[in-house]
Amino acid sequence: MSPIPWIVPVFPEEEGSRRHAAIRNAMDREGLECLIVAGVCGNYGDRAGNFRYVSNYAPWFDDEYIVFPRVGDPMLLAWSITHAEWCKKISWIKQVETVGVMSTDPSRKMANAARIAEFVNSLRCGQGRIGICDFQTMPVYVYLGLKKLLPGAVFVDAGELLSHLRMIKSPMELDFMKKAGDCADIGFKAMLETARPGVSETKVWAACEYAMTVAGATPPSFTLMSGGPSLREKGRGQPYAGTGRTLQKGDIITNEISASYGGYWVQLCAPIVIGDSIPDDLRQMFQVHQEMYELALEQMRPGITLGSIHEKHRELARSRGCDPSPAWALAHIGLLIRDDIAPETVLQPNMTFVNHPYTQYTQAGSGTYSHHTIGNTAVITERGCEVLNRTPMEVFLSGSY
């Protein structure tokens, strides 16, 4: 009997070979003998971004590890024998092991550090520079265990090494992001169709999540939304999965719909008004965001630094009466929902960014309110940028749908 396949979006072996060669070239430049890549399913799965980039597989429960040497074959250490079995169906890494640990007890989970150290020593890397990918993801107990078991090693943060490689997407990766963009468009359409007076925010959010998952998105999505009679009453930001309140006529729904296809994220923001007219506070914020959005599209081209674009956004926000310090529009996105990169980063073709302007307003007696109203994801091209979503950047009136 043939084994049951694991039908999830994955990349072919040639994509793995390309990435592994690039990783080893970067390790050679940095003088690293091996990488230890940690992966967990935190932050809706994006804390497994580096793990997925190296292996074509992502954890879905607890911490798992890859030991990736500059010379020699890598090893993947899965959380359990059941995870290892599914991992072997799709991973580029052929040596998949488990220490049989299915416990959150740190004293038992020290077996992870012990097996990693044993494998590192077998590669004769125990006295060299070892990169950790990354310190935001690896649990402290494993890092402390490695320090104890590999006293001759020099551990360095190698998170930026993989970040720099991940920034420039291959054609296959861009295809995944375009499919994620399609899923986000489908999710917004479901949100718009469901948003009516008397319907709970939970139902609206669930309709969006369901539609994206059926379209091929990896659950769970990272989708924020909330409704209310005014932006001032809402205040700053919005929660995950809505507030649970029942929508009323005149409510404004703001959102941040983030869909992932095969681990590659996009974000889409498009406001909805439960009615047939746009409230003044939304109109004011939307007009500024529209200007910032168009400014970003003009600036998103090779050779421009991310910091210079943000400075132009702060200047525009100041001229429109907004607090300039938190004003911005672009965030790098891909295998991480938000991939923080330095302001001096120069834009290059095949980088991908969310263009979702953010402003903050403070008015006497009305408090502070802020967030995104519009936004979508774009890829830098040779001459500019290409938007990956099809949803128009406008205010949608549910009463006229």
At a glance:
The protein has helices at 13-30, 49-55, 81-90, 106-122, 140-149, 159-167, 171-194, 201-214, 231-234, 280-299, 306-319, and strands spanning 34-39, 64-69, 75-78, 95-98, 129-133, 154-157, 222-228, 252-261, 264-268, 272-273, 328-332, 352-363, 367-372, 376-380, 385-387, 396-397. The strands form three sheets. The chain has a six-stranded mixed beta sheet with strand order 4-3-2-1-5-6, sandwiched between helices. Strands 7, 8, 9, 10 and 16 form a five-stranded mixed beta sheet that branches.
Set down the secondary structure blueprint:
Blueprint: H1 13-30, E1 34-39, H2 49-55, E2 64-69, E3 75-78, H3 81-90, E4 95-98, H4 106-122, E5 129-133, H5 140-149, E6 154-157, H6 159-167, H7 171-194, H8 201-214, E7 222-228, H9 231-234, E8 252-261, E9 264-268, E10 272-273, H10 280-299, H11 306-319, E11 328-332, E12 352-363, E13 367-372, E14 376-380, E15 385-387, E16 396-397
Parallel strand pairs: 1-5, 3-4, 5-6, 10-16
Antiparallel strand pairs: 1-2, 2-3, 7-8, 8-9, 8-10, 11-12, 12-13, 12-14, 14-15
The general outline is globular
Count of β-strands? 16
Unreliably modeled segments: none
Treating each run of at least 4 consecutive H or I residues as one helix, how many helices?
Answer: 11
The CATH topology label of the largest domain is: Creatine Amidinohydrolase
CATH hierarchy: architecture of the largest domain: Alpha-Beta Complex
| Radius of gyration from CA coordinates | 23 Å
Portion in helices: 25-40%
Strand order of the largest sheet: 4-3-2-1-5-6
Mean of residue pLDDT values:
93
How far is the first residue's CA from the last residue's CA?
52 Å
Question: Which assembly state applies to the chains in this document?
Answer: single chain
Major beta sheet summary: 6 strands, mixed
